[in-house]
Design a protein that fits this description.
Blueprint lengths: L4 E4 L9 H6 L3 H16 L4 H25 L1 E4 L3 E5 L5 E5 L3 E9 L2 E8 L4 E6 L5 H11 L5
Antiparallel strand pairs: 1-2, 2-3, 3-4, 5-6, 6-7
Length: 147
């Protein structure tokens, strides 16, 4: 590959197939939604409580989705691979040391781990920050096997 490839985040929740992806979300997200609805029912379903809960969900969820959409990206050059997460933290490693593409978990979050020959993680990409086609594009550009 002689040119640089920049892949900007396309958070999964705003992708066209969001219904299928919601079915695959982590239990923690579903639990938060369930607890919010339970809170509303126990409070008598009053309109001010419902509006406050809805505004809180929009602010928290929308803020994270916006941060991912604006900040997360992967840059692949012939010499290095750089990833930037939603909080604008950048990590870079030499492209030549990457050996495999591994799906993993960190707490309840799915991650794509780019590991070296010794099995050490060099870069990690948040699963929910990129679409399937973007991950395919990144994997194809790197030419890494599944580990």
């Amino acid at each position: 590959m002689s040119t640089n490839l920049v892949v900007r985040s396309s958070p999964r929740i705003i992708a066209p197939d969001w219904r299928r992806r919601f079915k695959g979300t982590q239990g923690v997200i579903r639990l938060v939604l369930l607890l919010t609805l339970l809170f509303l029912v126990l409070r008598g379903g009053q309109l001010p409580g419902f509006v406050a809960a809805l505004v809180l969900l929009v602010i928290l969820g929308g803020g994270m989705i916006a941060a991912k959409a604006l900040n997360a990206r992967v840059v692949i050059t012939p010499d290095y691979v750089e990833s930037r997460d939603e909080f604008r933290r950048s990590r870079r490693c030499d492209r030549s040391i990457l050996a495999a593409w591994v799906l993993g978990r960190h707490w309840t979050l799915k991650k794509v781990l780019l590991v070296d020959r010794n099995g050490r993680t060099q870069l990690s990409l948040a699963w929910d920050s990129y679409s399937e086609s973007q991950f395919d594009q990144i994997r194809d550009a790197l030419g890494l096997p599944y580990g």
